[in-house]
Amino acid sequence: MSAPARLRLPRLTRTAHTVAEGWNRIGEQTAFYIKAVGEIGEAVGKYRVELLRLIAQMSLGVGALALIGGAAMVVSFIVMNAGALVGIVGFTQLSDVGIEALTGFFAAYINPRLVAPLITAVGLAATVGAGATAQIGAMRINEEIDALEVMGVRSVAYLVSTRVLAGVIVVVPLFCLSAILTNVTSRVVVRYGYGQSVGVYDHYFTTFLQPTDMIWALVQVTLQGAVIMLVHTYYGFTASGGPAGVGEATGRAVRTSLIVATLVTMVAGMILYGRSGNFHLSG
Amino acid sequence: MVAATALRKPIREIGGFFALSLDMLVALLNKPFAIREFLEQSWFVARVSLVPSITLTIPFNAFVVFILNVLLFEIGAADASGTGAALAVITQTGPFTTVLVVGGAAATAICADLGARTVREEIDAMRVMGIDPAQRLLVPRVMALTVNALLLNGVVCFVGLAGTYAFAVYVNNVNPGSFAASLTLITGLPDTVISFVKATLFGMTAGLVACYKGITVGGGPQGVGNAVNETVVYTFLVLIVINTLVTTIGTTVTK
What we know:
Chain A has 283 residues and is an all-alpha fold. Chain A has helices spanning 10-38, 40-46, 48-59, 71-96, 103-141, 144-150, 155-193, 198-208, 211-237, 242-273.
């Protein structure tokens, strides 16, 4: 008869285990991400039909969100509200100091640099990202992923790499849509909500809008798309614990991807824009 | 015929949502209030959302202030860096980060928990035993989210202001004194009150959406996953509309 095993330093051992587990999880995630990115070539070569199907599904397909339309609808709705907000805040705050004429300038500066990339990231994580976690997580719980592997399908290439690539491709038209919508809604709000003349708004808007800002924002959003899809597919791929597990994985994926995407936006923004605004105020 | 069915579903969903919300309002007035469940849920929500809110607030506000500072430097108004930071953090990014955390972290966790209970038919069992799930489970959760959103907004605003201060002073070399002095130039008590009103409304709405989606789950793991996905999307949609409305009303009223 052996005595029940007892830890010598229970609390310390447990803390050490938690730390080690966290450390291991970072390693596992990194390995998963490298594998997913590395197998993109294979995904393009072997699973082209699946890739095209995913692109169509992510951009316009309704999937789980049958109620209100797909990612395009959700992102454009969120972005329109943000654009309206820029118009409202810009006009009211600038008129406090008596320079409401410069609202067009404010919108031309804030929309491409702040609103379009940050808000598009939120929309992407909520729609395309969370959808991918729910899908892959349910496949994991139903042991469909194991079945794929038994059949000789490379599960990471087939499920993850295709989704990452599709996400990055879908981001480009989505961003173009959201960039147009933010600027249009700001203009509409300032024109019809506050009654500023369109000539004044357009003059300052077109004078100070920098086309390069739009390109940098596109770079930021593409990076976000890749990061968001990687995080969400990881959490879906490693979901466990029945139906509740899928839900929890989706929630955890959303909050992780939002944090990581914001971090990426910040670092990319600082690198791309530097300290100068590049606008020529003296005319 | 197809169009009619497609149209009927959203209307039915909206109706169901309002019906459940009314049920919860009635259950809130009925005694006894499930105080133990409320405390447990509050602690759960706080635990789930505190770390994400801090880690999300710091880069989010740092980026916003970085962009605003570039603009202020360019027009020679580096002294007003604090004004821009306070305006951004208190009126917009603070409540917005609270939305993201409450919707992304807390509401999803609550929806997943309720969804799992619904799938395991625990909710039906409660009904069979004559216990009203709205009173016992849903009301405490909505209240917990509401209270927590209010408190989280305080944390987010504090961390946001501290973070932007550090960023402006140590990265952009703004004078600390002028940063602190210019904080209250445009942003005053009314804006702060509006900010907290917004956060409370966000918490309540996120709670209602999460409870509705969680208790109407159907169809196993995929169903729960979809419900959580829909919770995130709907809370973000509803909250961003509330944000625009309250901002418009607030700027008009405080003028």
